[in-house]
Amino acid sequence: MKKNKKKEKLIKKEIGEFKEFINRGNVIEMSIGVLMGTSFSKIVTSIVNDVLMPTIGIFMGGLDFTNIVFKIKDAEIKVGSFIQSVVDFLIVAICIFVFIKVLSKLTKKKVEKEETKQEIKKKDEVLLLEEIRDLLKNKDDLN
């Protein structure tokens, strides 16, 4: 009986920790990012395989990259598929680079706005201190 209760407590504890883990915002955001990345990857793969590589092949004299294969005895080395995968990767990398640059610029503007607000507050404090100083000087001059 004691073993069953210990197992039940352990299972409840693990389920509680799992719920806490899942309910964190960044886990959900990361999951959404993975799903969006997977979908985006499929789109890029289609663009590379169905549009870009055939267009490049036309300009190279009708070359079909998927058919570029080196045969060594019984093994086939599919160079064309590799080239398509490299182009795939480069397009995704460029898109991520551009996205991060845009995101960086947006967050930089937000930080600059916050710094400007802080500078304005400092100026107000300085003005108040100057007024107090002037009042104290006038008080000393009157005495």
Main traits of this protein?
143 residues, mainly alpha, Non-ribosomal Peptide Synthetase Peptidyl Carrier Protein, Chain A, two-stranded antiparallel sheet, 3 helices, 2 strands, 4% strand, flat
Describe this structure in words.
The protein has 143 residues and is mainly alpha-helical. The protein has a single domain (2-109), classed as Large-conductance mechanosensitive channel, MscL, domain 1 (Non-ribosomal Peptide Synthetase Peptidyl Carrier Protein, Chain A). The protein has three helices and two strands, in the order ααββα. Helix 2 (25-59) crosses helix 3. The longest helix is centred in the C-terminal third of the chain and has 64 residues, at 79-142. The radius of gyration is 32 Å and the shape is flat. The mean pLDDT is 80.
Mean pLDDT: 80
- The level 1 CATH classification is Mainly Alpha
Strand content: under 5%
CATH homologous superfamily descriptor: Large-conductance mechanosensitive channel, MscL, domain 1
- Low-pLDDT runs: none
- CATH architectural grouping: Orthogonal Bundle
Q: How far apart, in Å, are the first and last alpha carbons?
A: 90 Å
Structural class by helix and strand composition:
mainly alpha
| Large-scale geometry | flat
The major β-sheet equals: 2 strands, antiparallel
